[in-house]
Amino acid sequence: xxxxxxxxxxxxxxxxxxxxxxxxxxxxxxxxxxxxxxxxxxxxxxxxxxxxxxxxxxxxxxxxxxxxxxxxxxxxxxxxxxxxxxxxxxxxxxxxxxxxxxxxxxxxxxxxxxxxxxxxxxxxxxxxxxxxxxxxxxxxxxxxxxxxxxxxxxxxxxxxxxxxxxxxxxxxxxxxxxxxxxxxxxxxxxxxxxxxxxxxxxxxxxxxxxxxxxxxxxxxxxxxxxxxxxxxxxxxxxxxxxxxxxxxxxxxxxxxxxxxxxxxxxxxxxxxxxxxxxxxxxxxxxxxxxxxxxxxxxxxxxxxxxxxxxxxxxxxxxxxxxxxxxxxxxxxxxxxxxxxxxxxxxxxxxxxxxxxxxxxxxxxxxxxxxxxxxxxxxxxxxxxxxxxxxxxxxxxxxxxxxxxxxxxxxxxxxxxxxxxxx
Length: 422
Ligand SMILES: Cc1ncc(COP(=O)(O)O)c(C=O)c1O
Description:
By secondary structure, the protein is α/β, with parallel strands linked by helices. The protein folds into 2 domains: 6-62 and 310-410, Aspartate Aminotransferase, domain 1, CATH 3.90.1150; 71-307, 3-Layer(aba) Sandwich (Aspartate Aminotransferase, domain 2), CATH 3.40.640. The chain has helices spanning 6-21, 23-31, 71-83, 94-106, 120-135, 153-157, 178-184, 210-221, 273-277, 294-307, 312-333, 357-367, 392-410; strands at residues 38-42, 45-48, 53-56, 113-117, 139-143, 169-173, 189-195, 224-228, 252-255, 267-271, 338-344, 347-352, 370-371, 373-375, 378-384. The strands form 3 sheets. The chain has a 7-stranded mixed β-sheet with strand order 4-10-9-8-7-5-6, with helices on both faces. The chain has a 4-stranded mixed β-sheet with strand order 1-2-3-13. Pyridoxal-5'-phosphate (PLP) binds next to helix 5. This is Aspartate aminotransferase family protein. Keywords: Aminotransferase, Antibiotic biosynthesis, Pyridoxal phosphate, Transferase. GO terms for molecular function: identical protein binding; pyridoxal phosphate binding; transaminase activity. Pfam families: Aminotran_3.
């Protein structure tokens, strides 16, 4: 029982979707066999208007790291609303300062400064501007099949402050190929930007030694290293930052998604003392109406408290071990559908044998009560990223339900093959 009364709200959701949001998206949901409309959620559960309870193995990429409506984070936001509003980005702010200090406690001591933004994309944009300002160079090297967000044109069209996006050259190299990266990084490279574990590319682990070599190449050439931990950070892999697994320290680190506690949008770019010195002549160089908002600041402090909770990382590692072992058995039972399970901590992926098989498995998983999503730059892959607070019993249920989903795909009962561009 979810407490939501269903048919009317479901119908209204889809009517409004067709009429005022996106008829094409409505058609896409229909093609996927009818994706239920979300009504709310609690912990690792998503509740739908038609009375279903899905186990969330998507977490919106980490937005719901601490589950849906986590009580202490929701309470921090409610308390903040009693006495503050978003605040003016241009004025000094005590809550913003406290949020930055809290975040610094989670970061290596080499990254004491943070700039808050309203989205991960904007934090990446800020990092790119900062790197170009700090180095006086324009080149950016990133990975093929990377995903860092959706902004860029606004910056390209805006006249200052800070270096213009029109001055950047982006080169892509295959993730994990150190020779390609070494060749691409040169004396005009301002920034090397990598997801520590690329999620949209299907949860690709960096080969051992790769990130250390990337760090070395940046040091040799004077380029700055940005690690995007928007999906992999805040405990997802069993360490606070995925980069800790390979003992690599970036010059800039971007976090987002889970930093919102699932209740208020916020992301951050954290950076070194040396980089912040380059802002001496242009301290206001990145205006952002909602960046560093005072409501967001309260949420950041509450999230940092959750990430620092004794036992959280042990809990993530223990649940991850259960889930991974169970999913490996599922792979073994359905070899015609599944090739492998891979990943680190609760950042897992099931590789299917069909180059577009992630979508069929996603559809079957929803039918069996699990929301998991296809990796949009690797359509053969289903991402399995539950909230960090998923219970062992729920992890067991996820294994059983994904087993049923794989069986459904194996018997061909998911209907025609799907090729949706999502
Ligand atoms: C690795 C990574 N970086 C950056 C972003 C952009 O974040 P946002 O959607 O908050 O702009 C995303 C979003 O999915 C992401 O997965």
